[in-house]
Amino acid sequence: MSEPSEARLPEDKPLEIAGRVYNSRLLVGTGKYRDMDETGRAIAASGAEIVTFAVRRTNLGQNPDEPNLLDVVSPDHYTMLPNTAGCYTAKDAVRTCRLARELLDGHNLVKLEVLGEEKTLYPNMTETLVATEELVRDGFQVMVYCSDDPLLAKRLEDMGCIAIMPLGAPIGSGLGIQNRYNIRLIVENATVPVLVDAGVGTASDATIAMELGCDGVLMNTAIAQARNPVRMANAMRLAIESGREAYLSGRMPKRLYASASSPVDGIFF
User: Fold this and answer.
1) Is 90 exceeded by the pLDDT of residue 269?
2) According to the 3-state scheme, what is the secondary structure of the chain?
3) Full-prediction pTM beyond 0.85?
4) Which of 8, 36, 74, 268 shows a CA-CA span of 20 to 30 A to 151?
């Protein structure tokens, strides 16, 4: 008979997004690197299978005289995830997603982010809800960047988003997860993948996200602005794997007082 604690262990479900199963739970961005060569090497070291890029800021061949992201990140090897970074209204975000669909030959998987203002890059949830409704109606598969409000996260899922992506802290801040309780509530209430998006600064932050039960983590600045981005990308890969294993293992309970590692009963002297 299994022990009661074993019966409560989390289920080891694969990460499935838009009908495709992924081995890596680390998603990475393409901005802020020194050059395209470093971008390609860091993404390869991360082990990521989903790569996100800002449609408004990325050359995919429309500017033939500029470096092309597709030269180092091939759609043959990665799932390309266009995002609406830099959009501050629902109208701009929807237009950007439609542009991405044209550039990528009908690609419907997008990461929606509608920002509130430039200082914090905090999501404008009112505009995010408006954009979500229109994009889902238009046939897009929406992964949505949002605040860490459990009620709004559940509403976005009910509207048809295929993944919920609450921020851990402001974009590019490196502060780590500031509200673990809310992230945990979002995870417990969701029936679609939950991925922390924004705020990760180092490997331990990624591990914490996974230990909270998140299905994955999306990051960019933490890798791109490390002193050695390629090495940090590998560290993040290992951190994601470690955090997932710890979550599935079921951590020991926290106690107020000591509990000896060796039993005190039955000693021989």
Assistant:
1) no
2) CCCHHHHCCCCCCCEEECCEEECCCEEEECCCCCCHHHHHHHHHHHCCCEEEEECCCCCCCCCCCCCCHHHCCCCCCCEEEEECCCCCCHHHHHHHHHHHHHHCCCCCEEEECCECCCCCCCECHHHHHHHHHHHHHCCCEEEEEECCCHHHHHHHHHHCCCEEEECCCCCCCCCCCCCHHHHHHHHHHCCCCEEEECCCCCHHHHHHHHHCCCCEEEECHHHHCCCCHHHHHHHHHHHHHHHHHHHHHCCCCCCCCCCCCCCCCCCCC
3) yes
4) 8
